Amino acid sequence: MENDKTIKDTVKQQFAKNAEKYVTSESHAKADDLTLLLEWLNPQPDWVVLDIATGGGHVAKTLAPHVQSVFSTDLTRQMLENTAAHLKPHFHNIWYMVADAESLPFLDSTFDVVTCRLAPHHFPNPDQFVREAERVLKPKGKFLLIDNVAPSDPELADFMNTFEKLRDESHVRCLSIKEWRELFQSVGLREANSRTRKKTYDFPVWATRMANDSEQAECVKQFMKEGSQKLQQYFSVIMHEGQIQSLQVDEWMVLCEKSPSQDNPCSQRHSQED
């Protein structure tokens, strides 16, 4: 089992060399969830926002025109520098900071909104990430998460996390919706809205985006082709003349709200028991 440092070093190496791909990626830059998050959040001009693991900066770019300021953080300095180079000429209220999602360098109750999109499957300790997101939110603050999620069926979940790891060495694990909900409940984040959608990937583009070489991409293809009919049907694997054309994965978008009280339910119960 890899330790946290090894995992995070791999994440930094992978995203440093693929930084530009994430800025220009169509699936990251033009998905309809960016429009939907504006509807759900209804951003206000005095809000201060934290975008965790900003990647190509697509959430920061979407929210910046509607709020006072956005703090874009990422574990990978080269990714952040590349994103900043693209956004700084156009947005003057985005601030860029190298930061670990599991240990944020901010005081308690700092932000009106915390967002994180398509990144938590790279986090070795999603429970720590959720605790940190809740901690830095103001009372009644909003937390918006978007990520690929694993099916509840263990066989399907194992297949998904295996092909993701084969494709991208920095992948840790996609959680199920049930697992995410349990983490939110443990820190007192209340679910206010959510949706699940099937997201289609162009297989050749998806398989090579994070692969080190063509041999690695070929391994992903062979693994998926050898999957059972049940597995291929669930992930809608489309093949033509022996080549995989596309596949689908589940993506979950969820909006949570922090309790009006700064004390989480666990600490309240502890005080009452004392």
TrEMBL record:
The entry's keywords = Methyltransferase, Transferase
Q: Which InterPro entries match?
A: Diverse_substrate_MTase (IPR051052), Methyltransf_11 (IPR013216), SAM-dependent_MTases_sf (IPR029063)
This protein's superkingdom? Bacteria
Record Pfam families? Methyltransf_11 (PF08241)
Q: Which GO terms describe its biological process?
A: methylation
**Which Gene3D superfamilies is this protein grouped with?**
Vaccinia Virus protein VP39 (3.40.50.150)
Q: What is this protein called?
A: SAM-dependent methyltransferase
